[in-house]
Design brief:
Helix content: 25-40%
Number of strands: 15
Order of helices and strands: EHEHEEEEHHHEHHHEHEHEHEEEEHHEHH
Strand order of the largest sheet: 12-13-11-10-9-8-7-15-14
Number of helices: 15
Structural class: alpha/beta
Largest sheet: 9 strands, mixed
Length: 433
């Protein structure tokens, strides 16, 4: 048991300490504000406050974990043995940076509460993030800081007990459009045909006809192939189906289609099926609940995992809505157009609601790789090298690498053979037993 002395125990402090020590490092902890209890403790212990008591393991605290609400935070990025960090601590501190305050800043998405310009879909731009602007978006810095802390603790406390984690990999398949042509109804099929003819997309016209005549498989119908691939290489996979009414940004097959429902049931027989919330439900809690209930009715089991359309996150309201709809896990935390770690971590974490100053009962599973961000890389070998580099970063800290691909992209062979490239990415992750 590691004892932490501090002058004030706050929700922010306990939240980030538990994530770093328990969640990442597997170290049991307790807190005290009494000097006498700290002195009497014979095991591993640290102080997190403004001044050291004697010559103990001391981390000088920044004010961030003792404040409330959002304040203007000045960040000066420094270097800690090759790793960027901020909130310098001074000479007396055992660590040169307050990694607890820095980790809270990253995990809580503090910067997303600060004034910024949102894109057309209401999203926070990666280019506004401290990680992007300071060149550490591709590093899970929170986990790296945690392991540097562990090394320092082991030097001071040789008997320190901690649990070893192992690297994990999860493939998320986003099914916002289950089929390109099939199962879309006569009216939508005819409208699509006329639009393709009007824009001289004769290849699509040919595909529409051959798919309609059952001469070839729909290009987005790659479910059996993916299930077989994941099974062969023992990959954990989670399918997110959109099950929503048609709208400007939601164009999946009708929820009344029996073939669509049968597809969802078929996939659910092999892997977990979760909900890709519609664009329309982003700010409509009742619609979000309705979509969840409808999907649960199809697969006849609870749906606990969510991801938002276009990876839209508006902190804290998005997570409040998900909690109200009784989701317990969310996979939206990441950037569509940039690779890397939006929250600075490759370890799942609870959402902290800053306006309410409370840890919320929903776990965030951050993804680092999105198919659209990979599409900017022109050569397949360069894609594989980039994925390998990110894999290595996550392996170093025994974290979880989450990738996000859509069946739509995997069915696209116009610019590159995405399915073949995806298979190579999966093979990279495979370690024979």
């Amino acid at each position: 048991m590691l004892l932490i002395y501090t002058h004030k125990i706050t929700p922010r402090l306990t939240y980030v300490m538990r994530h770093i020590f328990v969640g990442i490092l597997g170290i049991e902890i307790d807190f005290t504000t009494k000097v006498e209890d700290f002195i009497k403790h014979t095991g591993a212990k640290i102080t997190y406050t403004k001044q050291p008591l004697q010559n103990e393991f001391f981390v000088r605290s920044n004010e961030l974990l003792f404040e409330q609400g959002i304040n203007d935070v000045q960040l000066n990025i420094g270097d800690w043995e090759g790793t960027p960090c901020f909130f310098q601590t001074g000479d007396k501190s055992t660590l040169p940076f307050d990694i607890f305050a820095a980790s809270f800043f990253m995990l809580s998405r503090y910067e997303e509460y600060l004034p910024h310009v949102k894109d057309i879909h209401g999203r926070f731009s990666p280019k506004d993030s401290v990680a992007y602007q300071n060149g550490f978006l591709l590093k899970p810095v929170v986990d790296i800081w945690a392991y540097k802390l562990l090394e320092a603790l082991k030097e001071r406390f040789e008997d320190l007990e901690f649990k070893h984690k192992s690297y994990d990999f999860i493939s998320v398949i986003d099914v916002a459009t289950s089929h390109c042509y099939a199962n879309r109804g006569v009216v939508r099929g005819l409208v699509g045909m006329l639009m393709d003819l009007g824009t001289l997309k004769f290849k699509r016209v040919y595909e529409r006809i051959t798919v309609g005549l059952n001469r070839q498989k729909d290009p987005y119908d790659n479910y059996a192939e993916l299930i077989d691939l994941h099974k062969r290489y023992k990959v954990k996979c989670n399918y997110f189906f959109q099950f929503a009414d048609y709208s400007k940004y939601d164009k999946n097959v009708s929820t009344n289609s029996m073939k669509f429902k049968s597809l969802i049931k078929y996939v659910a027989d092999y892997v977990p099926v979760s909900m890709a919330a519609s664009y329309s439900s982003f700010s409509d809690l009742e619609l979000l609940k309705k979509e969840k209930a409808n999907l649960e009715e199809v697969i006849n089991r609870p749906v606990n995992n969510s991801k938002m359309r276009y990876n839209r996150v508006d902190v804290p309201q998005t997570y409040r809505n998900l909690i109200a709809a009784e989701f317990t896990n969310d996979y939206t935390m990441g950037y569509t157009f940039e690779l890397g770690f939006r929250a600075g971590t490759c370890t799942a974490f609870q959402f902290y609601d800053i306006p309410l100053e409370v840890k919320q009962p929903i776990k965030i599973h951050p993804f680092a790789i999105h198919d659209i961000s990979l599409s900017k890389i022109k050569k397949d070998n360069d894609v594989l090298c980039q994925v390998k580099a990110l894999t290595n970063e996550v392996r170093k800290v025994n974290g979880t690498l989450i990738t996000m691909f859509s069946n739509e992209v995997l069915g696209n062979k116009e610019d590159r053979n995405w399915m073949s490239l995806y298979a190579e990415i999966i093979k990279q992750q495979y370690v024979p037993q």
